[in-house]
Amino acid sequence: MSQQQIVCAYRHLFRQGLRAIQYSKPARFTLRDRIRLAFRKGSAADFDAQKIQNTLEFLQYATKENGLEHKIVKNLLFVWWSQENGGKSKSTQKSPTHELMRMKTTAFDAFNYNIDMLNESMGICIPVMTVRDPI
Fold it and tell me: Going residue by residue through the chain (135 aa), what tens digit of pLDDT does each one get?
């Protein structure tokens, strides 16, 4: 894909994602950060026009009805938001133990695997990455 097509895909995904979440305040910033991170870390060879089109269609269905697609988008953004904020409550310990650090860095591996399987089965491109900042 050319640079112009990648920028266009970014804008379409971001705009349709905002429509799907109805511009809600914490979710729009999480969506923006995730899409930015996916497009910055990915290479031009990674982008597939058909997968992007399927993802746009998925987000359009999430926009139109309060069905399964909307619930998937809502729950994805909630988990990503809680991941960025370190969970509901931050640890009060000054220095976390080695075991706690390992748990926090691997807690989202199964979640990311499920997103990867969803992407593979539906032919979509939801970003699958863990922000590994355990503290």
Answer: 788 999 999 999 999 999 999 999 999 999 999 999 989 888 777 788 999 999 999 999 999 999 999 999 999 999 999 887 766 555 555 677 888 777 877 888 888 899 999 999 999 999 887 765 544
In a domain, 129, yes or no: no
Q: Determine the length of the chain.
A: 135
Domain range spanning residue 66? 3-122
CA–CA separation, 126 and 35 (whole Å)? 9
User: Sign of the C-alpha dihedral, residues 40, 44, 45, 46?
Assistant: positive
pTM: 0.82
> Does a structural domain hold residue 24?
yes
Q: Pick the closest to residue 62 from 98, 18, 8, 111 (CA basis).
A: 18
